[in-house]
Amino acid sequence: MTERKADGTDAAGVETEVSAPAGNTGDTVRGAPTAEASVEEERQGVVVRDNRKIKDPGKAASTPAPAEPVSEAAPAAESVAQEESTEADESPGPLGAELEALRNDVDELTRDLQRITAEYANYRKRVDRDRGLATEQAVAAVLATLLPVLDDIDRAREHGDLVGPFGSVAEQLTNSLTKFGLSSFGEKGDAFDPTRHEAVAHRTSDEVTEPTCVDILRRGYLLGDRLVRPALVAVADPE
Questions:
Q1: Distance (Å) of CA 222 to CA 146, 201, 215
Q2: CB 234 within 8 A of CB 214
Q3: CB within 8 A of 21, min separation 6: which ones?
Q4: Cα–Cα distance, 137 to 223 (Å, whole number)
């Protein structure tokens, strides 16, 4: 049973409404109730109405909370900060001028380094070429001093004196000089070449159609493609 106070509210402070039995309409009967009224009242009981408004917890839980408005202040602040930093970078200041000067110095030093590298590469090529030329000249000078010995060997071979141990020594000497790149030229019947032959005699002949070496007085020698000594020849011209 809900306990009611004297002002008609229950213990929770909520107004309750008590309905009288249906048979007690009209004027209120003063005095002791009759037996029939007591029985009827006990049978019908007392009707209590609770007028409190209770919220549905399920409905309250399902209601989504209002979304917080997206703040536009943060993107705006970032945009302003980026613009300020860009302006600071573009604005010519002491640091910007110093950076530009350093860049110019680096570019100039880079160009100097490239120029020096190219000059050094050309210098190395020139030194290698000069070194090779000096070596070839030195070898040619040494071989030139041995050419008279080779001339004597050729004359001994023509007379048939190149036999025995002397022939073996002459053959070894010729082979050793050949290893250094020395080669001889000048044979009868070769076309006359003024760059390689030195003509010491001329005559005419109906057996040739062009100037031809008809006699070899001394062999010529080459060191690679370098002319060490021209050949002495007798030349026959066509009639």
A1: 13, 23, 19
A2: yes
A3: 37, 40, 41, 44
A4: 10
**Quick one: which of 180, 184, 197 has its CA closest to 157?**
184
Residues present in the chain in total: 239
As given in the structure block, the two tokens for residue 115 are: 């120029």
The token duo for 5 is 């106070």
What does the alpha-carbon distance between residue 218 and residue 197 come to, in Å, rounded to a whole number?
A: 10
- pLDDT tens for 163-205 read 888 888 989 999 999 998 899 999 998 999 999 999 999 898 8
- Domains, the chain: 182-239 (2.30.22.10)
d(CA 219, CA 228): 11
Question: What is the residue whose two structure tokens read 């000497």?
Answer: 173
| Residues 15 and 52 sit within 8 Å (Cβ to Cβ) | no
CA distance linking residue 40 with residue 21, whole number of Å: 8
